[in-house]
Amino acid sequence: MPANRTDLAMECFENADGGAIPGAQVSHWETDGIEITEVQITDNEAAQLLNKPKGTYLTLECPLLLERDPDARLGMASLLAEEIDRILPAADDDSPVLVVGLGNRSITPDALGPGVVDRTLVTRHMLGAPWAQSGMNSVCAVAPGVLGITGIESMELVEALVKAVRPRAILCVDSLAARDSRRIGCTVQLTDTGIQPGAGVGNHRRALTRESVGVPVISLGMPTVIYAATLARDAFAWLADGQGDGENHEEALADMEHTLLGGQIGEMIVTPREIDAIIQDASGIIASAINRALQPTLSDAEIAAMMD
Fold first, then answer.
1. CATH code where residue 153 lies
2. The domain containing residue 297 runs over which residues?
3. Is 175 inside a domain boundary?
4. How many domains in the chain?
5. Which of 2, 31, 232, 246 is the most buried (most CB within 10 A)?
6. Helices 275-294, 300-307: crossing angle, 10 deg rounding
7. Which among 130, 173, 180, 127 is positioned nearest to 154, based on CA atoms?
8. How does pLDDT run across 178-224, given as a tens digit for each residue?
9. Is 139 part of any domain?
10. Does 37 fall in a domain?
11. pLDDT digits (tens, 9 = 90+) for 9-55
């Protein structure tokens, strides 16, 4: 696996040679202290070059999230809710939105998806009750676990659920890997291209996309890890640049990666010491955004009361 491994489309664009890429458009802007980058991949050549499916990738960055700034957290949740609502298909019947939290809740950096599901307001079972509020949308949620624990592929469970509940859309949440460690815990990527379970920890499973399940799949993710090989290469490059060395060290870097970071245990990933707090905060922010987007007629207080 290459050392510049990343799940963020904006980082794939940054890593691509030559800057501008035909078939890929990139836009940058800022809203309320949140930096937003939109990457639109419109043709197959650009998709192959960037190693990303065709579609739209929206990345929201706010370093103040790492400082647990309350205004930053509210701003991120609000903006993310607006973007989720913008790309969700309109509700023309009682079909639910299925929220899928991918990942292993027993491994902290991979527990983002299950953490979001735990805080998502599910309403599919409420809508027929006499006390149900009018205007509520139907929502169901599941954290399917991982193959090593359940013996069942996430895709197999999701396919079965699609047949059973017939959702109008699937909203997936998963942990991602970043190229730049500064983006861990403060960046969210939203895309209409679906997701590949296990991508953040290098354990690729079957892709969860509109083509594979037959309904629109929107994915949300936050980087929680970075590959050790990426950090090693960055350190090596920094030392070489500091000594004014302009040589190409790609062969030496590859040997170092194989010798120090490869072997029988496989590739190593790195996560921050504060990952417990990062996952807890990120789960709350993303779940709040999902709840706001899916239940626009309910206030935050009403959503919280219904979840108690």
1. 3.40.50.1450
2. 9-307
3. yes
4. 1
5. 232
6. 110
7. 173
8. 999 999 999 999 999 998 665 544 555 678 999 999 999 999 999 99
9. yes
10. yes
11. 999 888 665 567 889 999 999 999 999 999 999 999 999 888 899 99
234-238: long-range contacts, CB 8 A cutoff, minimum separation 24: none
Beta bridge partners of 187: 61
At 249, list the tokens: 């060290």
Q: Is 220 left (phi over 0), alpha (psi -120 to 50) or beta?
A: beta
Ordered DSSP codes for the chain: --TT--S-HHHHHHHSTTS--TTEEEEEEEETTEEEEEEEE-SHHHHHHHTS-SEEEEEEE-GGGGGT-HHHHHHHHHHHHHHHHHHSPP--SSPPEEEEE-S-TTSGGG-HHHHHHHTS---TTTTTSTTPPTTPPPEEEE----HHHHSS-HHHHHHHHHHHH--SEEEEEEEEEESSGGGTTTEEEEESS-B-TTGGGT-----B-HHHHSS-EEEEEEEEEEEHHHHHHHHHHHHHHHTT-----HHHHHHHHHHHH-STT---EE--TTHHHHHHHHHHHHHHHHHHHH-TTS-HHHHHHHH-
Whether residue 28 lies inside any domain: the answer is: yes
Q: What is the pTM of this model?
A: 0.89
Q: Contact, 164 vs 122, CB < 8 A? A: no
Beta bridge partners, 171, equal 99, 218
pLDDT digits (tens, 9 = 90+) for 234-287: 777 777 666 666 666 667 666 766 666 555 555 778 999 999 999 999 999 999
User: CA-to-CA distance for 123 and 129, rounded, in angstroms?
Assistant: 10
Residue 88 has which token pair?
A: 């969700």
